[in-house]
Amino acid sequence: MTDPMWLPVSRRTLIRAGAWAAPVIASAVAVPARTTSPPVEVAAVAVATTIDGYPALAVESTEAGVPLPSGQYFFTATGGVAPTAGVFVVSPDLGAYTSPAPPGATTAMVILPEDHPVTSFTAYIITSALPDGIDPDASLTVSLPLGIGATVALLPDGVGGPEAATYGPTGMHWPARTPRVDDTFDAVVEVPPTWEAIDAAIRQLHASHPDGKAKIVVQPGQLPLGAGARSSANGVLQGIGGAGRAWRILVVPRDGWGTVTGSGSVFAYESEGYSFRGVNGVALVGFDFTQQGVVVRSCDDFALAWSTFGVLNVTANEYPTSGVELIECVLPDQLDLDGDRMAFRVANGYSIEGIEMRGCYVAPSYRAASSSVHTDTLQTSATGGGFIRNLTFADSVFFHSSSQTLQFEYAENVSFTGTALIGGLRGAGRYPFGGDRFVPTAENTLWGGRAEQPHAANNVLLDRTIVMGAISEYWQIVQATAVTLSRPTGAMPAEADVRVDEQFATRDQALDPEWLEQHCPLPTPSRLSAVWSALVA
């Protein structure tokens, strides 16, 4: 066995199954600069390897002999695997620094305190001890405090390409450090569907159980109007909780998804939507905001999960925003709206440091034919300084809006794993354009940057991902593994593992409905109720 303290960091490290099982590798190797953006601090690197024959993830400092950054290293398993005690192993043994997942959870942690001496470690799953019925595409992913994580296939002989995947909500993703609905709790509070009651319960439980498992169950009903989902809006929940709790406080409808809804119209979301402002150490799971807009503002260690939205934004403009998880967040219906469907925005020199989207589904936004408003499915932007760093997209799907699918600027350290990015008119069979809507003539799927401001997305990793459409030259892709493209592109690195699939080649041809339903099932209310049935304990 290789000494884990001296595991080599190699971009060519592969596990035994060959090309389709090649892991995402976060490389610290210098890449020729294509932009004029400031350098990004990457103090640690993760790489897929093997240990005792098991697929593993090695983490080490980018500077020899220098301890790894302090903080939380999250190891999240998919495919029915739970990284619990007995199957989740860290070598060398880090003792109390290691926190296996509790039964039924999917995320284990390594927590390195200030002034620790650890310069590297390796984590793996004893796959021989796993029960039968594990998804052959099961994987283990690590997220780092400073640096880009990596993914390794746990059962590499069974790994398939991206065309074998399912994109969107499946009920298999769950936010980190968030107890499940049916866990044993130290405290449970039931409240009526009002923001005042939820606010008071969060404050009470954070004070009385700062390190315990706490749950707030919300009775069925309609939450009242908010003050808007603008980037400057006051919050319906504001200045509550605390980052770094052992467990996030779980806020969940008592009777499952669809039983607690919002008020107001998505077309008036700027004045009637909901802002979560300065909410820390909290997870809201299972809410139906399909007809509302929501903005996450100045939050740290906050999650939205197993919920539906009309518009969903994240912003940092008065404090940094960090550690935000959007887990199986679904924007199910097309919107005839002049504006972005989702946006990550920073302003006034503040930055977003870490957003994870896993198992998400984002339908398009179509602007009026007479409108010139930029209308993207997901846009990142900065006004007055700031960056959007450490973005993770996994098992998700994005459909093309009137302008672009993803329109990025000022984005650093971006990874896509098992994600479908659908450009052009390929999604128009499911989401048709009305006669009064602007119909795009391009297929700008990964877009952004321009000659006078070339920074779109830097340090981008693609793994088992489909890109249907064009990729801007201002996207700096440094690693591409098992990637399917609809057309050749010069945006890929020299050692990219990519193929072109002719079935996706035509920009203005709608995708086969059978392909869509197999790989991107329409998130109807009945389907969501089924895949999220675990919300009803």
TrEMBL record:
Keywords recorded for this protein, A-Z: Signal
PROSITE patterns linked to this entry: TAT
InterPro entries per UniProt: TAT_signal (IPR006311)
Signal peptide as annotated in the record: 1-21
Top-rank taxon: Bacteria
Listed name of the protein: Uncharacterized protein
Taxonomic path: Bacteria, Bacillati, Actinomycetota, Actinomycetes, Micrococcales
